[in-house]
Amino acid sequence: MERLKYGPENADITYIPHNYDEHLFDSGEVVLNYATTGPPDKPAIVLIPGQTESWWGFEKAMGILSDHFQVFAVDLRGQGRSSRTPGRYTFDNFGNDLVKFITFEVGRPVVVSGLSSGGVIAAWLSAYAPPGMIRGAHYEDPPLFACELIPAFGPGIRQATIRTFELFNTYLGDQWRVGDWEGLKKAVREEFPASFLMIFETYYPMGPEPPQNLKEYDPEWAKAFVTGSVGASCDHARMLSKVKCPVLFTHHFSRVDEKTGNLMGASSTQQVDQVEKLVKKAGHPFTRLSFPKMGHSMHDQDPELFVRTLVECEKTLPTEKEIKRKGVFSESG
Fold first, then answer.
1. Where in the sequence is the domain holding 109, given as residue range(s)?
2. For the stretch 286-321, what's the b/e string if a residue is b when 16 or more beta carbons lie within 10 angstroms of its beta carbon?
3. 60-102: per-residue pLDDT in tens?
4. How many separate domains does the chain show?
């Protein structure tokens, strides 16, 4: 059996060039890779990828966004060219990495937009980042509650994506230590029904080599979600009750199977209802937009719609100047 091993230590077989220059930010514990575009006199936005996505997942949207924003797209720890940190893939660590990045690399209040797990991290930042750091947060089809082992509301990860993550960790292994791509393909084809297999192959084409996004991914991320360690100290209901800024939630395709209770999609309508209730109870505006025919990643599937949605949202937010009067970036702070 051929064993593959991808990651920063095997950069020559792992990475490919992209349309934007890449830069490194050293937080002390991790080195975060990122790309940036757009003029500094525009509002700043930080784009947060989902699980198995690197910064270049936003590449289609970045050029359009740069007409309206100074754009920063990051690789989270364990993805892309950023550091691998065995045993330390948690929402608290992802969030604190970005707090440091915004503080020392961006240096001013930002809008944050995160897809999927990145949307959970956007929620973390909207709740736990220092005051005056986050102008507003876009949660792009996040699995809020739905990626918890024991969610307060609705189906959890055991009724959603857990088998995919189990297979990633079993056949690829932490830091690609197993690297059995052929075994993974065989297991997926044997275990998944045809309807789910088609969706799986949309994101992870099963060719002779792993797709580029999986090459740049530490499968220990998957184990962190399977075991629940990723959010062991990050209860979603508690987090959402602490939100400190306006929120935009875009909810995409979603369906709960009536017979099994299994969730197709990132979160159920009822779970989004609870997110809205908690954010509004915390005293902040909540805008909810439903796109029932949209795939998981709007920024990839329809980048122009993604940008229009963000631009319209940004117009409603407190200005950077207003936010800077108090908080982490204030001149008196």
1. 18-155+234-324
2. bbeeebeebbbbbbbebbeebbebbeebbeebeebe
3. 999 999 999 999 999 999 999 999 999 999 999 999 999 999 9
4. 1
